[in-house]
Design goal:
624 residues, alpha+beta, 7-stranded antiparallel sheet, 17 helices, 30% helix, elongated, isomerase, cytoplasm, rotamase
């Protein structure tokens, strides 16, 4: 009894499969409308099913034996068999129903009433010109072959039949370098090219060096795979492999993918290129050091000059010892680290790097000139993943968090704000899975989390992203509304964004919630007042004469600079950047990041002034 109840509870009704258009068409079939006569038996035990590519010859005759049309050359056809994919291709109803009953090599005669061929109402296949679609007809079908096929293009213009399975899962893509044995035949079996001796055909994926359809098919193959790629004429583009494309309806390419070299355009603009020279061990990208890790590499650095001057080689200049560094800490040039993160242990790669991702923004070796393009030949010996926090007790977790936080602080002091922010955010993500067990642990956890959020806010402020800085401070104030440091940092972000009223509120609130913060708050308020006055002074200078008008007398005024001429874009930038910079910051807060702030009464009096102030970069101030 219990087992019956369990069975009832475990039963879940399956979702009914939606009816296809072919299923709806099959319902129209009436007895006697489709008759089959076996003319020659086939071989094997299986029949074609949905998803199979079927290749067959077809000859259509009237009931008295007159040939209407045929694919066979002896009956006036081109000698090219028809290829369809069951369940995908548009077919007449009689063949859609009849061919799945056949065996490979079988020849059968199907007698069809009009509704089973082109006389079907709303037939998806257009009838050939002058076709007698109103008559009963005989369709002689020879099923040459059928097999599972990979549909490469939705319009069935490119299909692939796998002969031998390949290795791994990775397939070539732009701009990989590919080696393959390739031969090509027309649909009737005529060989039109063969590259199966000597060296495999070499081409760069995405460079139009093989016909488009063939490249699409190869893009679905894995190493050592053998396949036939069927390409119809709309995908037969001219290429070095087939320079002349004649009036072929389709071409069958027999391909063996010998090898491909992983080439990655790291920036998408062709400047930072990673080319794999030797395969590593493991599966890409699962076994790559994607996360911050301790890495060991050998590398040779070369200038991109005619001599390929070597400026550093760990095997020579480092006493044969590999370079060991932690990723995510700015210890190597950015382009170097980006590429190493996508390497497998044991892999050797050649990296071509532009100066802005090499040594122009990194400590430059004396032998590397400024603005130099470089190449690194890198071998990833191995790496150690960061410690997994699973199973650690609370104190161990906090110790690990402190190590990462200290690293972030070092990066912040070095001016590497993006990297510092990534360290703080890493700990904050891990904290989502930490559950303090006592009140004391809860207090330590909250203080640490607040500190990390404020560090993130400081990074955003240094990066000029004021709105994100404010959002980070809000996360602290949501949990601890009386957090003086969070109020101070948010106030500084508001001030940098030009939202002076909000900044004043935060600085005044600091004094209320923590008397000890009054000196800092007072200094911030004084700085705020000075900045407001500076903004007003700049605005008055730029709009000289406008503020002398009485209400109702505001007229257009010519904006002039100190010399009396028109202000240029360069003058605006140089004159108006300073009021929006904090003393310790070096970048503006972006308007898009800052959102919409209060505009003051001046805009209500002069709406078009908003556009001018916006162009000048002072649209966030309030004119007093």
């Amino acid at each position: 009894m219990a087992s019956e109840e369990d069975a009832e509870q475990s039963y879940v009704p399956q979702k009914k499969k939606s009816e296809s258009e072919d299923d709806k068409r099959r319902k129209k079939i009436v007895p006697g409308s489709l008759m089959k006569a076996l003319m020659r038996p086939g071989g094997g035990e299986s029949n074609p099913s949905d998803g199979d590519q079927i290749i067959y010859h077809c000859t259509v005759r009237t009931l008295d034996g007159v040939v209407v049309e045929s694919t066979r050359s002896e009956h006036g056809g081109k000698g090219i068999p028809i290829r369809n994919v069951l369940g995908k291709s548009k077919m007449i109803l009689g063949l859609l129903e009849g061919i799945p009953t056949m065996l490979k090599g079988e020849v059968a005669m199907f007698k069809m009433m009009p509704q089973m061929h082109y006389g079907e109402e709303d037939c998806p296949v257009p009838a050939p010109s002058s076709f007698p679609k109103e008559y009963d007809l005989h369709f002689e079908i020879e099923l040459i072959d059928f097999s599972k096929a990979k549909v490469v293009s939705d319009d069935l213009g490119v299909l692939k039949k796998v002969i031998d399975e390949g290795q791994g899962w990775e397939s070539p893509r732009e701009p990989y370098e590919v080696k393959a044995w390739i031969s090509a035949k027309t649909g009737d079996g005529k060989v039109i090219m063969s590259h199966t001796e000597g060296e495999p055909y070499f081409f760069t994926f995405g460079k139009c060096e093989v016909p488009k359809g063939l490249e699409m098919g190869i893009g679905t193959m894995t190493r050592k795979e053998k396949a036939v790629v069927y390409v119809t004429n709309q995908y037969l583009t001219p290429s070095p492999l087939l320079p002349m494309i004649e009036d072929y309806e389709e071409v069958h390419f027999e391909v063996e993918l010998v090898h491909f070299i992983q080439v990655r355009d790291m920036l998408g603009d062709g400047r930072l290129i990673k080319r794999r020279l030797h395969d590593g061990k493991g599966d890409f990208p699962m076994d790559c050091p994607l996360h911050d890790s301790l890495l060991q590499v050998h590398y040779k650095g070369m200038l991109l000059n005619e001599e390929k001057t070597v400026f550093y080689d760990t095997r020579v200049d480092n006493q044969g010892e590999p370079l060991e560094f932690s990723s995510g800490e700015g210890m190597v040039p950015e382009g170097f680290e980006m590429c190493v993160r996508l390497m497998l242990p044991g892999e050797i790669a050649l990296v071509t790097c532009p100066p802005d991702y090499a040594y122009d923004k990194f400590s430059r070796l004396p032998s590397v000139p400024e603005g130099a393009h470089v190449q690194w030949e890198i071998e990833l010996l191995g790496f150690e993943m960061p410690k997994d926090w699973t199973g650690l007790n609370f104190q161990e977790i906090m110790d690990e968090a402190e190590k990462i936080r200290v690293t972030g602080n070092r990066l912040f002091k070095e001016g590497k704000f993006e990297l510092a922010k990534a360290k703080y955010e890493k700990v904050l993500r891990e904290f989502n899975h930490v559950n303090p067990q006592t009140d004391e642990e809860g207090k330590v956890f909250l203080d640490t989390r607040n500190s990390l959020h404020l560090n993130v806010a400081a990074c955003f402020l240094k990066m000029g992203e004021c709105r994100k800085s404010i959002d980070a401070c809000n996360k602290v104030l949501d949990a601890t509304p009386v957090h003086a440091k969070a109020l101070y940092r948010r106030g500084m972000a508001y001030m940098a964004a030009g939202d002076f009223e909000e900044a004043r509120f935060d600085f005044q609130m600091m004094i209320k919630v923590d008397k000890s913060s009054e000196p800092d708050a007072t200094a911030a308020l004084a700085k705020l007042k000075k900045q407001e006055q500076e903004v007003e002074r700049k605005a008055r200078k730029q709009f000289k004469g406008l503020f002398d008008k009485k209400p109702g007398e505001i007229a257009e005024v010519q904006v002039e600079d100190r010399a009396g001429g028109e202000i240029t874009g360069e003058n605006q930038k140089n004159d108006l950047s300073a009021p929006f910079l904090e003393r310790d910051d070096s970048q503006h807060c972006n308007e898009a990041d800052g959102g919409q702030y209060g505009m003051g009464w001046f805009y209500s009096l002069w709406p078009s002034g908003r556009r001018i102030f916006s162009a000048l970069g002072i649209d966030k101030c309030t004119i007093l």
